From TrEMBL:
GO CC annotations, alphabetized: membrane
Annotated localization: Membrane
Keywords associated with the record: Cell membrane, Membrane, Transmembrane, Transmembrane helix, Transport
Keyword Transmembrane: yes
GO process annotations (BP): transmembrane transport
Superkingdom, natural source: Bacteria
PANTHER family tied to this protein: AUXIN EFFLUX CARRIER FAMILY PROTEIN, TRANSPORTER AUXIN EFFLUX CARRIER EC FAMILY
Topology with respect to the bilayer: Multi-pass membrane protein
Designated name of the protein: Transporter
Stored InterPro entries: Mem_transp_PIN-like (IPR004776)
Amino acid sequence: MDVLIITAPIFLLIGLGFFAVRKGFTPPEAIPGMASFVLYFAIPAVIFSNVIRMDFTTLFDPRFIGVYASATLGSLFLGFGLAHWGMKRKSLHSAVLAVGIATPNSLFIGLPVLVQVFGEVPTVFTMAVMVENLLVVPTALILMERAANDGTSGVNWRAVGGRVLKSPLILSILAGVVVALSGVTVPVILDKMLTMLAQAAGALALFVIGGALVGMTVREVGTDTLLVSGGKLILQPALAFLVLMCVPGLDEVSRITILLLCAVPMFSIYPIIGGNYGFRRQCAATLLITTLTSFFTLTLLLSFLR
């Protein structure tokens, strides 16, 4: 019952977003704007506020970064191998499936889950964001670009680099580091504004996820969907657990954060990414199935962690 107190409100908010859009209380055209607010303002406020208060000896913990990078990148390449050599899918198809396995939705689902578990945003969340945006997402984009170009070196490096450098998450981390190192004190009024933005992040992010699920169907569900959903919700956290067993010394908050972020569904733009290569409907169905299934897998995982 204690675990349901954590997971039930999260998925009720997702359901509320779905209900609001499905019944017309919230127009579907409003969802992208809400998502932009969360991505460009609310979550950067969370990250910036965390960074300026952090002990910089904990901002770059090589053990945390190593474990999280190993679990996410390991699942990316393992997922590609399972799809390409195990299921005989073509390289591009395999790359798209692998991206679904490897990319956690740490911002829209992971962050609210962590807040429910710890009562606040753990400082190590910033490191997870760094790993995803500086390492995992660029590697995933490169993998798909190379596959789309028949394994040649024809990767649009400018597009990949631009995506990283323009990321509001990376910019908020850099801004926080600059402010912290300069010794400048954030004015009280600005600090209160950042706090208000941060408080809006979790609930609105979940509402957006629910609204975005409207219109998605399960018509494209097949073995590929089962591979990606199982890979994201079972394979990746299992791989994280194995890596954690080999890296002693991480504190409990770090271990739980890694396991929970690896256990959430793939990022919400997965259908958009897949759509760029002709797999939009399949990726949308996979996102829907994975998000619904994650209620049960996250609840089960939390029951073991508590």
